[in-house]
Design a protein that fits this description.
Elements: H1 14-25, E1 28-38, E2 42-52, E3 58-59, E4 72-75, E5 89-92, H2 97-113, H3 128-148
Antiparallel strand pairs: 1-2, 1-4, 2-3, 2-5
Helix pairs in contact: 2-3
Length: 154
């Protein structure tokens, strides 16, 4: 799908961007998952919203820091917006300990950043526990890069 954000759009704000576009120009908000692959390691789905224009065309209206102009999007008719952040869905492409450890540490970081009321906010409380988790994530990431090469830019 084409990434074509309006000039006023902010990164990581897909829900509000699409809601504003629907209000201003019609169409509908479609929830689902932006998909990314790290070959040999994981396929990852990031909760996302895109704009289905009144003419039926789909547009990803959220700017991307990497400047990509295309995203693979999988609509999810059962998806709902119920927290500020949903954890990504990760599927290992090989049953290797370091890949499973990477998925586990990503899940632990998400849980730690989204305890209590923080699940309803883009902010989280920085803690020594999170420092530890980020450090472990970096170690596992370096091992994966050494074995499989770096992930494609996302």
């Amino acid at each position: 799908m084409v990434v074509d954000p309006p000039a006023w759009a902010q990164e990581l704000d897909c829900i509000d961007i699409v809601r504003r576009l629907v209000t201003d120009s019609g169409g509908e908000c479609v929830l689902g998952w932006a998909l990314w692959e790290w070959p040999g390691v994981i396929v990852e789905g990031e909760f996302h919203a895109v704009w289905k224009k009144a003419d039926g065309a789909y547009v990803d209206a959220t700017p991307r820091s990497d400047g990509d102009t295309f995203v693979l999007f999988l609509p999810d008719p059962k998806a709902v917006v119920d927290t500020w952040q949903k954890d990504n869905v990760r599927m290992p492409l090989a049953h290797r300990r370091e890949i499973l450890d990477f998925i586990e540490i990503k899940e632990r970081i998400h849980r730690a950043k989204n305890k209590g009321n923080e699940a309803q906010s883009p902010l989280y409380t920085h803690t020594p526990h999170l420092d530890y988790l980020f450090s472990e994530e970096a170690k596992i990431f370096r091992r994966l890069v050494a074995r499989f090469g770096p992930p494609p830019k996302q």
